[in-house]
Amino acid sequence: MRVLVVEDERILADTIAEGLRRHSLAVDVAYDGDAALERLGVNEYDVLILDRDLPTIHGDEVCRSVVESRSGTRVLMLTAAVQVSDRVSGLALGADDYLPKPFAFAELVARVRALGRRSRTASPPILERAGIRLDPNRREVQRDGHFVRLSRKEFAVLEELLRAEGAVVTSEQLLERAWDEHIDPFTNVVRVTLMTLRRKLGPPPVIETVHGVGYRIP
Amino acid sequence: MRVLVVEDERILADTIAEGLRRHSLAVDVAYDGDAALERLGVNEYDVLILDRDLPTIHGDEVCRSVVESRSGTRVLMLTAAVQVSDRVSGLALGADDYLPKPFAFAELVARVRALGRRSRTASPPILERAGIRLDPNRREVQRDGHFVRLSRKEFAVLEELLRAEGAVVTSEQLLERAWDEHIDPFTNVVRVTLMTLRRKLGPPPVIETVHGVGYRIP
DNA sequence: GTTTTCGCTTACGGATTCCTTACGGATCAC
DNA sequence: GTGATCCGTAAGGAATCCGTAAGCGAAAAC
After folding, report:
1. Is the torsion defined by CA of B209, B211, B216, B217 positive or negative?
2. Which CATH number fits the domain that encloses residue A12?
3. pTM score, two decimals?
């Protein structure tokens, strides 16, 4: 899942980003409203984590623009203010959720995941398919009842394949959804990651290769 | 995804085209406004990369014509000018995005991708006809209930024939839609691909030859 | 502080696909 | 009928795609 964090306090922004990455999310960061709009124009995000008080362009503006674009990106508003009025006006702008600072990190992760779920067809919190069971919140995977230990990237790739619900996912889509924008587009990490993933999942094979197109879990 | 690059500096145009092809996009090139309009009349593109200063017909004209045609083609304007006024007027003409020269190639790719996503028509339903069932998302084909494994080209050709809904599709049309313009127009790949396709689909025959015209699935 | 894991790159062999060439049979116009 | 064109098929080499091994620096785990 692809997330954009917009927050002008750099240390906080980077901390959030790093934390989310540990949960196998692909995270980009912007430190002001301008940069945020630019990133949103170039990439497609499932969730936008948005501070309200931003330089150059106010968070409310960014939010309005995202909502109007009907891109399917969900907005999670952060704000220092504790007042209910803020919450109300934030939601009025079309934000999908609201989290007052300070917040517990686990809370943030849970909400991001919940929003990410909504951005697709309302899928259950646990993904299950072809003998694979994946719990995004606990970051756990089982194959035929046995727990399998996956790295961040392996987990992210498997999650995307499961979310596709049998549809073919191209390598490029995997790159876009499981890696952030700094990745070299000519890389073959996808191939390598798929190999280790398949090895860890063990026989019989679950991930199918569609030659010249991509991969899928039937 | 299908892209048309319109740029009068040939070296730049060819460089862009080649780079995009490396990213698995089907790319055509036009070197002036006239040629651009001609290509646009003949083929359907997801994204049009358009230089503003063009011989014969100005880029603004081309842009306006594309927008008015409501073809669903997204326009990415290139321009040497750095002035904001240009950006404004470009977007006023209906361009969907704007990139000032010089630009980083990765940036171009990213934006083309973003536009292509927007152009994509809603996820295609399953195509069914004459005992053939084709699911574009899962990349699966069934003949009378039996799964058939097809290569990329075979799949593309079959998809075009099914989309025609019984109408005759000429070899030229197949070449244009399932291949990009690189292909030698005198080739007989279509014939060859049709042969392997028919063989894989097995008897009784489903793809009919209309002598001197093309092919169809009645 | 040492060991292990992770994420990634490079390299290469094997599998698959794609396309060209070549040729014989089918179809059409006259 | 017969010549011209169109179509189907075989075969093989080139190009592409994919899986895997090996190795390396950085981060994490111990």
Report:
1. negative
2. 3.40.50.2300
3. 0.73
